Amino acid sequence: MNYCIHLRKRKNKPYCKLLNKEITLSQCQECASKKYKTKNNQNSVYKIRNAQKNKKNVQNSKIDAKFAQKLQKMKLKSKKQAKKEKERYSVFTTDDKCMICNSKHYLTWNEIFRGRNRSNSMKYGFCLRMCLTCHELYQEDVFFNDTWHKKAQIYFEEHYGTRNDFIIIFRRNYLE
After folding, report:
1. Which of 38, 75, 87, 117 has a CB 3.0–4.6 Å from the CB of 113, allowing a cystine?
2. Which domain holds residue 122?
3. Better-predicted residue by pLDDT, 142 or 3
C-alpha cells in the first residue's frame, strides 16, 4: 500500500507534515495535496521534500537563516578538525609506542599546546604519542607540560620562524 509523502508516524499515530497535526488515515486519503511514493519517482520525491524543507527554513525568519548558516559553518569546521586529527604527527618521535613507558597498547595523541592552540599543535606536529595511562598521568602535570612547551618553542624557532612568529601564532613565550 502506498502512503502520502507527507504522512509520518508520531507516537504511533498518523501525523501530517503539511497540516502539522495528528490526523486519521481517512483524512489523508481525502487530502487534495497528497503525493504518493512510488519506486520510479522515489528520488524525485525526496528531492521535492528537501526543497520544501529548505523553502520553509528560508521563509521562517531571519533568525532561522542565521542559525542554519552558523550550523553549516560548524559542520564544516568539525570536518576540518576531524581531518586535522586524522593527519596528526609528531616532530619529536616517529615510533608507534608510548614516549614514556614504550608501551604499544592503547596509544593516543597528546597535543603539547591545548585549548585555543590545539589546532596549531596539530598543524606544526607538536603532538606526543602516549598510552592512555601515561596520558592520564601527565596531561595535567605542570612540570611535564612546561618542559614540552619549551622544547616545542625551541623546535619552532629552529625550523619554522622567529620567536616573534611563535608569539604571534601561540600567543605566549614559554622560554622567558
Report:
1. 117
2. 87-170
3. 142
User: For the segment 76-99, what is each residue's pLDDT rounded down to a tens digit?
Assistant: 767 877 888 888 899 998 888 999
Q: Which amino acid is at 134?
A: C
Beta bridge partner(s), residue 26: none
- Which of these, 103, 93, 111, lies nearest to 134 by C-alpha position? 103
**Sign of the torsion angle spanned by Cα atoms 90, 147, 145, 176:** negative
Shared domain for 163 and 103, answered yes or no, is yes
pTM, two decimal places? 0.56
Strands 7-10 and 13-16: antiparallel
Per the structure, the count of domains in the chain is 2
- The helix/strand/coil state of 109 is strand
Residue 92 and residue 46 share a domain: no
Q: 11-44: per-residue pLDDT in tens?
A: 777 888 777 788 887 777 777 776 665 544 445 5
User: What is the tens place of the pLDDT at every residue in 119-161?
Assistant: 899 999 999 999 999 999 998 899 999 999 999 999 999 999 8
* Contact criterion met (CB below 8 Å) for 4 and 36: yes
Q: Answer yes or no: are the C-beta atoms of 46 and 6 closer than 8 Å.
A: no
Q: What is the CA radius of gyration of the chain?
A: 27
| Rounded CA separation 148/26 (Å) | 71
